[in-house]
Each structure stands twice: as C-alpha cells, then as structure tokens.
Specification:
The chain is of the alpha/beta class and about 120 residues long. It has two helices and eight strands. β2 and β3 form a beta hairpin.
C-alpha cells in the first residue's frame, strides 16, 4: 500500500545514527542523504525518509518494520539501544497480538515508537 513514509526529526544527525544501527539487522541501510533529508530502505529503494523539523514541534508516530526472523528483531533492539534509542518493549512474543507475533519496540531520538516484528 505505501511507497514511503516521512518523519520530521529535530536532529537529523542523531536520527541517522539511530536508524543506521537499528535498521541494519533488518537489511535496510542509508540510501540517500543531503542537507534536506535522509532516506533508508533496501539498497536503492529508500522508503523511510527523515526531514529536519526546522524548529517545529515533532509529533510522535508508530512505524513497524518486518524482520526476516526473531534474531533480527533481537539485533534491531540491541543495536538501536546502543545508538541512542530507548527501550519501549524488549524482544519477545506478544501473544495478545497473535501466537507468533515476536516484536521489539524502541523510541527513536524524537520519541517515535519504532518496532521490528517477525510473524514466524
């Protein structure tokens, strides 16, 4: 359904550090960056775009990324914490969502709730 998602961020350098670390275990990297934006996704196909908020208020959003396996969810959480994210839910099964819903949640530097989920 979606081609891409854009998030306004207060500090683009801090956000780029966080997303580079957190998304690498999911197979996504920094595809494009200039003074006005940074794009992340699979090689050559950025789908998450970060834009400077330019002093404006930043509204928190929830974004969930698919993970190939549960180990990738674990690495997303570990690497995201090391890169400045805050724990919003350790890796584990979320049986209230579904019997196989394995996920982890982090708050990015702007307070967005970022999730990695494996449904296997």
């Amino acid at each position: 359904m979606y081609d891409h998602v854009g998030l306004k961020v207060k500090d683009i350098a801090a956000s780029v550090r966080f997303y580079k670390a957190a998304l690498a275990p999911l197979g996504h990297g920094l595809c494009s960056q200039d003074a006005s934006s940074a794009g992340f996704g699979p090689p050559g196909a950025p789908a998450l775009w970060l834009y400077p908020a330019d002093g404006k208020a930043v509204a928190a959003t929830h974004v969930a990324f698919s993970a190939a396996d549960r180990g990738a969810v674990d690495r997303f959480h570990k690497e995201g914490l090391k890169a400045g994210g805050c724990d919003q839910g350790k890796p584990g099964l979320r049986a209230d969502y579904s019997p196989t819903y394995y996920a982890a949640f982090l708050l990015d530097p702007d307070g967005n709730n970022i999730e990695a989920v494996c449904l296997k």
